[in-house]
Design a protein that fits this description.
Layout lengths: L5 H9 L15 H21 L8 H24 L3 H21 L5 H28 L4 H4 L8 H14 L5 H17 L2 H18 L6 H7 L1 H17 L1 H11 L11 H17 L3 H6 L23 H6 L9 H14 L1 H23 L6 H17 L9 H24 L31 H8 L3 H4 L23 H4 L1
Helix pairs in contact: 1-2, 1-5, 2-4, 3-4, 3-16, 3-17, 4-19, 5-7, 7-8, 7-9, 7-18, 8-11, 9-18, 11-12, 13-16, 17-18, 17-19, 18-19
Length: 497
């Protein structure tokens, strides 16, 4: 079947929400925001219909698919039980629906050419979101103090994660990638957001662990990452000299607890107060603990933490807080909204999938380092690792665009792992061999590729043509490396899909 518009659908699926924005007034701007969602959903449904299908089962893929479907569809039960405001419910649910749609579209055995298009669209969309959010935040704010809350891209850590894969894992540097990474760090510093800085450090350490085949070689990898550290240090120095007020704000944020009456950081206390109220509400009865309070349910600050905010907020303003958007803590909010039955399965399953793919990638990188699509798995792992990194300071599935991006990242990670797991050697626990016996030869593994076998056999097992697997730049970063598009046999199903 010809899918001549597949490329257009991929870009319509990932690009429009990069221009999504947070309206300065909560009562205006909703129509334009939903206009961005319509082509995304339409293109996603079209891609889901034309996408190739897996013919082999995968336990990990089945578990992830079930957990994501349970999270989204199970919210309907909580909505009927709690009868939350329908508009609030749909607004909070929309990013989770986009997360599900992105996962279902990307978790397919797409050809290597189509995967490169997905990666290129992902990278370009993240860069556009970074620049657009920064410009829009400055334009709608009076000064830098007010703008710092609006200039942060919702996928800033996801963009940094992919670039850190280039720098630390693939060890490829270009002027463009270094410039984009430097701009992201500048935005991070101007926002004076501690959680973002912690997330960047976490992703840097995660990339080091991903690239090191063993714990003993982590320090060697750290030595090779001097270039990335130099870029970070240089950008920090430039911002400190150019914007002295930013340095003062960072100093105030770091030592904020010392300036309060209680000696406690106010931001940390408000996050704890929010989580405590959500926990108290969901554990108030067996019904809410099982089904949750539902998406869009109102929550406040727990009165337990009011004394810790003395001098920071009045008692009247404290009790006036009544919020319904997705909470700042992703993990607690999932329990609050979905309960034990519908809320916690998806976060736990995705974390387990990230760990499984992480260790599988490290093993395969040593055994078959030139395997086709192994770099795709590495980039997908890094992009999805930005989800727990983002959850340090906020809910990664609160904004619409980040929900879509992380869903696509999860789908690419699971699909690529399933294909490589079938083709590459499995990790085996070798029993201790007695000193007087020779080690037994590795048994034949039907359907798997043994270490040292040629790329042609591996590409055939993965369903990739030999020409595609040996094309220039096929093992490189498809999102950043441009290569000519082949038009030969363009109408064959296994190429155009």
């Amino acid at each position: 079947m010809r899918h001549q518009y597949a490329t257009l659908w991929i870009w319509l699926f990932l690009l429009p929400l990069a221009l999504d924005y947070k309206a300065p007034d909560a009562n205006v701007g909703h129509f334009i925001q939903f206009v961005f969602v319509i082509p995304v959903i339409a293109a996603g449904l079209a891609l889901a219909l034309i996408a190739p299908r897996f013919h082999n089962g995968s336990r990990l893929r089945s578990v992830i698919t079930f957990s994501v479907l349970l999270c989204v569809l199970g919210s309907i039960v909580a909505q009927f039980v709690q009868d939350n405001d329908t508009g609030n419910y749909l607004r909070v649910l929309l990013p989770f629906v986009l997360f599900l749609l992105g996962y279902l579209v990307a978790c397919r055995p797409w050809s290597e050419y189509r995967i490169s298009q997905f990666e290129k669209a992902l990278f370009v969309s993240n860069v556009i979101c970074l620049l657009f959010t920064f410009a829009y935040g400055l334009a709608t704010s009076g000064d830098l103090e007010d703008a710092r809350f609006r200039i942060i891209s919702v996928t800033l850590l996801g963009l940094q994660a992919v670039l850190l894969h280039e720098f630390v894992v693939a060890r490829r540097f270009s002027f463009f990638t270094i410039a984009v990474f430097a701009v992201s760090v500048i935005v991070e510093l101007l926002s004076v957001t501690r959680s973002l800085m912690i997330g960047t450090v976490f992703l840097f350490l995660f990339a080091m662990a991903l690239s090191a085949p063993s714990i003993q070689l982590v320090w060697r990898t750290a030595a090779r990452s001097v270039m990335t550290g130099a870029v970070l240090a240089g950008v920090v120095g430039i911002v400190a000299v150019t914007f002295p007020t930013v340095t003062e704000h960072w100093t105030q944020r770091i030592f904020a607890s010392e300036e309060t009456v209680t000696g406690k950081d106010p931001t940390t206390i408000t996050r704890l107060a929010e989580m405590r109220d959500q926990y108290d509400q969901v554990t108030a009865s067996p019904e809410t603990l099982l089904f949750g309070e539902g998406y869009g349910h109102y929550y406040r600050y727990s009165p337990v933490y009011l004394p810790d905010l003395a001098g920071q907020i009045s008692e009247k303003d404290f009790y006036a807080i009544n919020e319904w958007p997705a909470g700042h803590n992703f993990w607690v909010y999932q329990l609050f909204a979905g309960g034990l039955l519908f809320g916690i399965a998806m976060p736990l399953a995705t974390l387990a999938a990230l760990a499984i793919c992480f260790f599988s990638y490290r093993y395969w990188r040593v055994v078959v380092p030139d395997a086709p699509m192994l770099p795709v798995l590495g980039r997908a792992i890094m992009l999805f690792a930005a989800l727990p990194a983002t959850s340090i300071g906020g809910n990664p599935l609160g904004p619409r665009f980040s929900g879509l991006i992380f869903g696509v990242a999860l789908g690419l990670m699971i699909a690529t792992h399933a294909r490589l797991q079938r083709a590459l050697p499995a990790r085996m626990k070798r029993p201790p061999t007695p000193p007087h016996l020779h080690p037994a030869a590795m048994p034949e593994l039907p359907g798997r590729i043994q270490p040292g076998m040629g790329r042609a056999d591996l590409a055939t097992t993965l369903g990739i043509s030999h020409a595609a697997s040996t094309a220039p730049g096929s093992g490189q970063f498809g999102a950043l490396v441009s290569r000519p598009t082949s038009t030969q046999n363009a109408n064959r199903p296994n190429i155009v899909r």
